[in-house]
Amino acid sequence: MFLPLLQRSSAPVVVNVSSALGSLGRMTDQETRQYAYRGMAYPASAAAVNMVTIKYAKAFPGIRINAVEPGYTRTDINGRRGGQPVEQGAEIIVRMARLGTDGPTGTYTDIDGPLAW
Ligand SMILES: NC(=O)c1ccc[n+]([C@@H]2O[C@H](COP(=O)([O-])OP(=O)(O)OC[C@H]3O[C@@H](n4cnc5c(N)ncnc54)[C@H](OP(=O)(O)O)[C@@H]3O)[C@@H](O)[C@H]2O)c1
């Protein structure tokens, strides 16, 4: 639906707001905070967002399409229990939304850098 609009942009960008709970690498690594997470639907849907990111990034090399993990942020989804304010969670989203045409695509990052898929 948004494709024609994106293709009219001189620097088209898509930022998929994913979660570290969608990381298969972290979910299988006992050393991570994500390992002990008990829910099923949320991590599975975040993993699906990651796969969609990869597939779209390959299909549309002229568009920067990346997945990000904002960090545990105080929003409605967690009853405002997140460890950081929305402004901080938005940082990586805004950073990736401002990529130029030479920026990366098909990546999965948080504020500190790349995450294991
Ligand atoms: N907060 C965190 O700690 C955290 C950590 C990692 C990743 N994330 C990711 O960040 C993203 C944004 O979440 P958030 O923290 O900003 O949570 P939020 O404040 O609860 O916002 C979720 C948004 O999704 C919308 N939504 C929910 N179900 C929908 C549906 N079926 N169709 C259309 N819109 C729907 C809600 O709309 P209404 O307001 O109309 O209900 C709301 O605007 C999510 O993808 C989440 O997985 C959040």
TrEMBL record:
Keyword Cell inner membrane applies: no
SUPFAM superfamilies documented for this protein: NAD(P)-binding Rossmann-fold domains
Keywords of the record: NADP, Oxidoreductase
Keyword Glycosyltransferase listed: no
InterPro entries linked: NAD(P)-bd_dom_sf, SDR_fam
Pfam families: adh_short
Gene Ontology MF, one: oxidoreductase activity
Family as reported in the entry's similarity comment: Belongs to the short-chain dehydrogenases/reductases (SDR) family.
Protein name in UniProt: Short chain dehydrogenase
